[in-house]
Amino acid sequence: MSRVIVVGAGVVGLTCAVRLLEAGHRVDVVARDLPLETTSAVAAALWYPYGTAADPRVAAWAARSYEVFDSLAAGDATGVRMVEGTEVVAPGTPDPWWVDAVPTLTRVPDGWSLVAPVAETPIYLRWLAGRVEELGGTLTRLNLRVLPEGGDVVVNCSGIGSRLLASDAAVTPVRGQVVHVEQHGLERWWLEAGGSPLYVVPRTEDIVVGGTYEEGDWSRTASPETAEATLARAALLVPELASARVLRHRVGLRPARPSVRVERDGRVVHCYGHGGAGVTLSWGCADDVVALVG
Fold first, then answer.
1. DSSP calls for 144-155
2. Of all helices (H) and strands (E), which one includes residue 123?
3. What whole-number distance in Å separates Cα of residue 41 and Cα of residue 1?
4. Which CA distances in Å does 107 have to 62, 93, 99, 134?
């Protein structure tokens, strides 16, 4: 088997590392940002192929990831739960292009309802990193200017860093700002996935309320005005949020690209450009990465 260096310690990089280790490869993960410092750590991590093209490959990756998350939800340590919720859409809206990726989609008066995985990222990222270590892999902080020379294969999961490391100007930041508020007993998620997305995702200790989709914006500084507007919109879906105590503000830069890049180029396997769907596509993409490593 090969010695593989995985670049990137977000959800995509760690998931690829786990699958490669399970396939018998020797794997070392290197990254500028450790798991809880990545954009993945900011994500509400509700399964939903948001910001991706209606591509059969994307649908297959999403379906495979759904299956894996469903199995992971059986374990308390993973931080993954299967949660019912509603996407609000206009009357007469056709079924989403990804409908075959989920077991059931039920029409309700204000949209459609489904059970979807939610990964509590502080727990889930620690679990993934622990799984890498458990399988014999390593995780090292390393600030790279170019992809590493060592190893038989390099798997590039550097997200927005691929602008530099893969010389890919098609990767652009899409700024997302979220607010964490106190958990008041909310058990369902809510979503409006328009041009300016709105989502309310319950976790065990808090609720993640977002968000924004600001293309080309590199700022990681939270805007109080944006937070206030987001909470006001969310309170129309969940009135209890109007009086919920704010716990923290977070900002992440989604690595957007016209299409997700999962392909081999010489000794490098690229896996980046997932936009707002890194968690949603992670396990499906990781399986393809293992096949490309060979």
1. -SS--S-SSEEE
2. helix 121-134
3. 31
4. 21, 10, 12, 43
Q: Which CATH number does the domain housing residue 252 bear?
A: 3.40.50.720
pLDDT for 102 beyond 80:
yes
DSSP 267: T
Give pLDDT tens digits for 264-279: 999 999 999 999 999 9
Separation of alpha carbons 278 and 255, rounded Å: 9
Residue 235 near residue 242, CB atoms below 8 Å? yes
β-bridge mates for residue 270, sequence order: 156, 263
Mean pLDDT computed over every residue of the chain: 96
> Which pLDDT score, from 0 to 100, does residue 193 have?
81
Predicted model pTM: 0.96
Range of the domain at 131: 3-293
Q: How many domains does the chain have?
A: 1
What is the helix, strand, coil percentage profile of the chain, to 5? 35, 30, 35
Closest CA to 174 of 251, 242, 254: 254
Provide the terminal-to-terminal Cα distance of the chain, rounded to the nearest Å: 9
Q: Give the integer Cα–Cα distance in Å for 250 and 206.
A: 13
Q: Radius of gyration (Cα) for the chain, nearest Å?
A: 18
CA quadruple 123, 191, 37, 14: dihedral sign = positive
In sign, the C-alpha dihedral spanning 211, 223, 258, 16 is: negative
Spatial distance between the Cα atoms of 122 and 124, rounded to a whole number of angstroms: 6
Contact indicator for 114, 104 with CB cutoff of 8 Å: yes
